[in-house]
Amino acid sequence: MSRKRFRRMIFMIIKRMSEPYYQGVAAELAFFFLMSLVPIAIILGELLGVFSISMSVIHELLSEYVSPEIAKSLSTYLSYTPSGTISVLFILFSLWAASKAQFSMMRISNYSFTGHPSGRGYFRERFRAIKTIVFTLFTLVFSLLILVYGELIIKVFSAYVTDFLGLTFSFDEAWYLLRWPFAMALYFFMVSYNYYVLPTERIPFKKILPGSILASGGMLLATWIYSYYASVFANYDLLYGSLAAIVALLFWFYILGYILVIGIQVNVVWDQAK
């Protein structure tokens, strides 16, 4: 990419984000992210329960990569013990509630590409958002399965290689090399899939890659910076008291939502800036 094209993209994105429509979209996404947490926890808990995985795995990952305030808030919302007797109707209701953020992203994507947020009508777009959140949840479950049972899978594979092929296979090195790159690849695929399917107008996959790369890397970088800031500098307890954890969580969601919207704008202006 030339320097001139890069500058043109920056100016185009700033101009688009200054439109009245985009002034509150990050706050809207942050609100719907928060509203979707409990329904997502219910569905995730039931899916992970099938594979004998508790929600504590998610809590451990959160405590390792986000600030204590955010981890505390998320642990509160994501605390769910699978019952095994949940009804299909309740699952459908949970999916409907969990897809609110997806539906909001869908409307933002439609407006960014076509200028009309409605797409093909409310109910058709709503059910399309449910399909997207189902795929996203299964991707999350598969990623957690790899993190939890990947060690066992590699051990079985290493035993097969050693016994039948007569080759030495280092389990520790393979697991160290494959675990997180595979999880990161699934994370990038999940972000790219959402950018690809959310617009009603079908966009070629290669045209959503720039925004997917920016959003994937940007959300990870923003999470790391904000976690450090919230742990070292911010003192939400002093200002918000008992609401400090929720405020810290909402502000994090606001940053993530803003980055996701910027990623959509990158996909829109990528060809226009040539």
TrEMBL record:
It is a multi-pass membrane protein. The lineage of its organism: Bacteria, Bacillati, Bacillota, Clostridia, Peptostreptococcales. The keyword Transport does not apply. This is YihY/virulence factor BrkB family protein. NCBIfam families: yihY_not_rbn (TIGR00765). InterPro entries: Virul_fac_BrkB. GO terms for cellular component: plasma membrane. Keywords: Cell membrane, Membrane, Transmembrane, Transmembrane helix. It comes from Sinanaerobacter chloroacetimidivorans. It comes from the Bacteria. It is found in: Cell membrane.
